[in-house]
Task: structure prediction
Amino acid sequence: MTAPSLLTLAFAVSLSSVVRADAPARLPEGPGLAAKYPGDQGISKDAAVLFADDFEAGDLKKWADMSGTIAITGDRPNAGRHCVVVPMEKGKNTGGQAKRWFMPGADRVYARAYVKFDEGYQYPHHFLWLSGNPRKEKWKSFGKAGLKPDGTYFSTGMECWFAWGKNPPPGELFFYSYFMDMKIDPKMNKYWGNSFFPPGGAGQGPGQAANEETRVIPKLGQWQCWEFMLAANTPGKADGQQAMWLDGKLVGSFDGIRWRDDASVKVNCFWLEHYGYDASDPTRKFHKERQTVWFDDVVIATEYVGPRVEGKGK
Result:
């Protein structure tokens, strides 16, 4: 991946850094903004939408800082004719990525993307991210692995926890977050991302897995609607929030987070990433030689988006 890169130097998750949700907060579920736009047609023109790409243009011109194996394909789209494919090949590459800034951003942002893993997929290292950066320093949250944010940037990733090979692929959903009150890894004396697990999740140490009945495991070989929300806090207060949905079902929400100390720092970057295989990746020994993810129908908005509904066109 090209520098500067965020959170790619390590993937240390310690018991001291785990946050669990007792129960989902009252947030929307099921149909959302997308229900007003069958087939997502015209959704990009909605006042609440900050960015949208269904990849039907057949290119990645809307994105920035692209690197690695990311490409447009006509193979297996969620809808329409095109989607994005990002393979990883062991010993050859670390996957691919692209970013989209929407400056100056907003205090509350929802990111929806359709995701499909290949049928034999194992585990990713890092995946989908939202971050907050100063208006004139769009790279501020990047390259900060191991550091505690100072209130001028923050980030969170909707990812899959592999539980040292004990969770079924691609792993259980969780947040991997950098924020002002994050806890240090006492063994390494570094501030690696703290983990936020939905209720019933959080299998942590080597050989441990979460409750098999309640952990949230995305499916392999089929398209699913991923969505997550990051709400910045009021400076001086711990009233920030984050939440995640899978196929329109709210699976975890977390309150009381101090993301920032500066009200001008907004949520303003979405990172589409399929990353792994480098020397710091503890999941690499579980990977097959090639594993692939497809992405489609990305919408970034200030309102809950929800799954796309069927309609004419895409």
